[in-house]
Amino acid sequence: MTMETLEFQAEARQLLQLMVHSIYSNKDIFLRELISNASDALDKLRLAKLQDGLEADTSDLHIEIEVDAEARTLTVRDNGIGMTREEVVALIGTIAKSGTAELLGKLKEAKESPELIGQFGVGFYSTFMVADKVELITRKAGTEGHGTRWESAGEGTFTIDDAPDAPVGTAVTLHLRPKDEDDALYDYTDAWKIKEIVKRYSDFIAFPIRKTSGDEVETLNSQKALWARPRSEVTDAEYHEFYKHISHDWTDPLEIINMKAEGTFEYEALLFIPSRAPHDLFQRDARRGLQLYVKRVFIMDDSKELIPDYLRFVKGVVDAADLSLNISREILQQDRHIQMIRRRLVKKVLSTIKDLMSSSPEKYATFWREFGRAVKEGLLAEPDNHKPILEIASFGTTEGTEPTTLTAYIERMKEGQEEIYFLTGESRSQVENSPHMEAFRAQGYEVLVLTDPVDEIWVDVVGEFDGKKLRSIARGAVDLPKDEEKPEPEGDFAPLLGFLTEKLTEQVKEVRLSHRLTTSAACLVSDADDITPALEKMYRAMGQEGPRVKRILELNPNHPLVSGLRAAHERSAGDAALPDTAELLYGTALLAEGGDLEDPARFAKLLADRLAQTV
Ligand SMILES: Nc1ncnc2c1ncn2[C@@H]1O[C@H](COP(=O)(O)OP(=O)(O)OP(=O)(O)O)[C@@H](O)[C@H]1O
Ligand SMILES: [Mg+2]
Predict the structure, then answer these.
(1) How far apart are CA 432 and CA 185, in angstroms?
(2) Where is this region: A (predicted)?
(3) Residue 592 Cα, ligand 2 centroid: separation in angstroms?
(4) CB of 41 sitting under 6 A from ligand 1
């Protein structure tokens, strides 16, 4: 193999562009990123030896920082797993993260946006904030022959070449840009600056980080596993840096949770609840799960077995004392102890949130805004936890703009109200303006406004809270206490209802009078046991074709259109205009709740014809 010049993948090129033009003001973090990569590489080498029997010397795993003030270079070296030539091209030349293109688009729009980039993690490329040339020399552990040398100025291309004498591991050398303190570009050959950065960002790294200058060697970090230290001895700043290291988030966490179990099965856990949702919270292929350690030895990242999917935003470390270092993912899934730890973690996370509700309502509100949608998935996944999950949940309501808990809703329930009323829909305004709401609003009943797709499902699965049934106001019959102000409808509607039921037999299963309308002429409701149209739509979107469920058309007997219709039908049941009016009535009811007409063109024509008669 000889020297080649290759191009960065398009997304990688864009990200590099952003780095070179430094959109992020805190340039110090490049060192944290390099140390983090080196630490990962050391973990990987130790694991390869442990689990795959790779022959490697792991007696002195470490990270070394070396500076040359004259040449203005800084090198971060590790004796970890290293990379093959193919790996260097694939790992350093491309970005394999999902959502990259989308995020880069957003980043370009919003120039100074550390939050956005923090959601993403720029890793190795952050070196180009401080260097105008980067060299990487590496050799993969367990491979024969030579290593690989990579070099780039961070523009469109990089070169790759053989490196005959490279030792196992990786060395990254930065050719530093001139210092420019106005631009937060410090002198990174300065020993104090390096010490400060390492202490701030990387103190907890489990391997020694050594600084060498001449013959002098100094270890810069304490290497203490944060989760093993009593909370009182660790500063918030230290926890925050650790959180950023494991989560790749750049913002401080919302809450820190320590756990320690002693006895037959010992473990320690340090969990974090982030303060905002990652951009890929609802992407299937996103990374999730906790880090698993066994007696301080890193075993695996993204251990999904330790935390259920609905709490996938929780980050952290679990260090179990009694697991085998060889434990595989397959075994983890079945391991009794792991399942027990998982149950305890869930309990602890839920109770922590519950405490936040009273101790720090603002934090709780942030939590729910960011993660509520995900948490509600737990209502489907964990029947045993309905209660604790509902206790920490909040929902939109017709009573004010702030979300309410179910407990608070129940406290506000009116005399004689037995059920928790809710209405689902795609948006708050759609729900609030739905005809189903009319009588409830008129009589002052509070209704929960549920607008997340998952709401359609959990309400059915859960059924009740605290002995109170959850009741959709768009389903079944409504028997609100009588509204005294409403006049009794005049005349007999039975013949009209019979006529309409027959005319609309394709569309609805029944036409009946309504108690839920005050201003609208008509609305559609589902039978108490039928699935709702929204659910039907969701199933169809998932490729499950079910039978179309017909609904019930309810008419407001006090509306002039409906009473007029009754009179017209009474005068002449054969009136040729009646069937069209029936269709228009049905169509309007469908539109009012935000539904889709089956044949919009036909509806438009009927309506235009009818309007033409009135002008
Ligand atoms: N010192 C190293 N030793 C071995 N492999 C490395 C080293 N540095 C980087 N790599 C490889 O290059 C990849 C890209 O590194 P980069 O820091 O950009 O992303 P990352 O570490 O995967 O994610 P993050 O954005 O969280 O840093 C790594 O996943 C790793 O496989
Ligand atoms: Mg990295």
Answers:
(1) 53
(2) 1-329
(3) 52
(4) yes
SS (H, E, C) 6-25: EECCHHHHHHHHHHHCCCCC
pLDDT of residue 324: 78
Q: Is the distance from the beta carbon of residue 189 to the nearest atom of ligand 1 less than 6 Å?
A: no
Structure-token pair, residue 237? 């700043």
* pLDDT score recorded for residue 45: 96
Among 24, 65, 91, the mutation site with the greatest number of ligand 1 atoms within 8 A of its Cβ is 91
In the chain, how long is the greatest CA-to-CA distance? 109
Stretch (H or E) spanning 236: helix 236-247
Per-residue exposure over 284-302, b if at least 16 CB sit within 10 Å of its own CB, e if not = eeeebbbbbbbeeebbbee
Evaluate whether 174 touches 31 at the Cβ level (below 8 Å): no
Share of the chain above pLDDT 90, in %: 63
The arrangement of strands across the sheet holding 4-7 comes to 4-7, 157-163, 147-152, 131-139, 169-176, 73-78, 63-68, 209-213, 216-219
**Per-residue pLDDT, 112:** 53
Ligand 1 centroid vs 511 CA: distance in angstroms?
A: 65
Report which protein residue has its CA nearest ligand 1's atom 8: 37
Q: How far is the CA of 138 from the centre of ligand 1 (A)?
A: 13
* The two three-digit tokens of residue 190, written as one number: 């300065």
Structure confidence at residue 120 (pLDDT): 62
Task: Say how many Å lie between the CA of residue 33 and the centre of ligand 1.
Answer: 8
219's tokens: 């270890």
Is the CB of 92 within 6 Å of ligand 1? yes
Low-confidence ranges of the chain (pLDDT < 50): none
Residue 449 β-bridge partners: 396, 423
Can you read off the two tokens belonging to residue 463? 């059924």
Q: Give yes or no for residue 64 CB within 6 A of ligand 1.
A: no
Query: Which ligand is nearest to the Cα of residue 118, counting in written order?
Result: 1
**Closest C-alpha to ligand 1, atom 1:** 38
